[in-house]
Amino acid sequence: MIKLGVPSKGRLMEKTFDWFGQAGITLKRTGSEREYAGAVEGAEGVQLVLLSAGEIPRELAAGRIHLGVTGSDLVREKLADWESQVADLAPMGFGHADLIIAVPACWSDVDSLEDLDAAAHRFRATHGFRLRIATKYHRLVREFLTREGVADWQLVDSQGATEGTIANLTAEAVADITSSGETLRANHLKILSDGLIHQSQATLFASRAADWAGQESRLAGLAQQLGLPAPTL
Ligand SMILES: Nc1ncnc2c1ncn2[C@@H]1O[C@H](COP(=O)(O)OP(=O)(O)OP(=O)(O)O)[C@@H](O)[C@H]1O
Ligand SMILES: O=P(O)(O)OC[C@H]1O[C@H](OP(=O)(O)OP(=O)(O)O)[C@H](O)[C@@H]1O
């Protein structure tokens, strides 16, 4: 069996079901509304595993699922050297969201990363501690700011309602996902002009660690059915 991990609820689940449905593969939840059980029709030897989108990268890396759908941001955040652990089989054209850095809209002298670097330097001199950036994307933000040469910041963990941390005085800046921009606007924040870290979308990944022995032809058939090139893992 090829185990296919799919987000268990919300937008990503429904659009993933639609995406496979267009290729004649019906994925569905079975049982009661709250039961995380699923079934596949239209593809032989594929088992549906319903999981949190955030846990799919780890399950792929461990080889407990062969294929998985999740945001490209989550794979890059959760897996060190992600390309060595999973193969990117197909961008799926939904779940678009940008991981960005934002600061209070009233910071009139901070519009770019260079400005943020200068502001962080001044902040540390004034307050005696580093400017705090709230995020749940620790790996991606750390790599980005280091690569871009921004200094004198620290990350503070925020697992939700991240844009609220500035008003709550637990951070001076945020790095979070935005799609419509409503949440940033509502919290009086602006995106830095060069503060785009990653453009994410839902993506079909294959595990390099999973046991593919005996599944090669099944995988090739599935890829063909989905209109994808034959994967090399
Ligand atoms: N407002 C948004 N619009 C579009 N996509 C979004 C938005 N917020 C998050 N996403 C994307 O959805 C994906 C899943 O995010 P989410 O935070 O819902 O996962 P999760 O925390 O694992 O879910 P769960 O609540 O099941 O644990 C991520 O790849 C993210 O980029
Ligand atoms: O640009 P927008 O369309 O306003 O979307 C952005 C918001 O969506 C996500 O939050 P989510 O709803 O997943 O809740 P969370 O705060 O618990 O992460 C993200 O963390 C932003 O807060």
TrEMBL record:
GO terms for molecular function: ATP phosphoribosyltransferase activity. Its EC number is 2.4.2.17. It comes from Thioclava electrotropha. It catalyses: 1-(5-phospho-beta-D-ribosyl)-ATP + diphosphate = 5-phospho-alpha-D-ribose 1-diphosphate + ATP. PANTHER family: ATP PHOSPHORIBOSYLTRANSFERASE (PTHR21403:SF8), ATP PHOSPHORIBOSYLTRANSFERASE ATP-PRTASE (PTHR21403). Residues 53-212 form the ATP phosphoribosyltransferase catalytic domain. The keyword Amino-acid biosynthesis applies. Pathway: Amino-acid biosynthesis; L-histidine biosynthesis; L-histidine from 5-phospho-alpha-D-ribose 1-diphosphate: step 1/9. Pfam families: HisG. It is an enzyme of class 2 (transferase). Catalyzes the condensation of ATP and 5-phosphoribose 1-diphosphate to form N'-(5'-phosphoribosyl)-ATP (PR-ATP). Has a crucial role in the pathway because the rate of histidine biosynthesis seems to be controlled primarily by regulation of HisG enzymatic activity. This is ATP phosphoribosyltransferase. Keywords: Amino-acid biosynthesis, Glycosyltransferase, Histidine biosynthesis, Transferase.
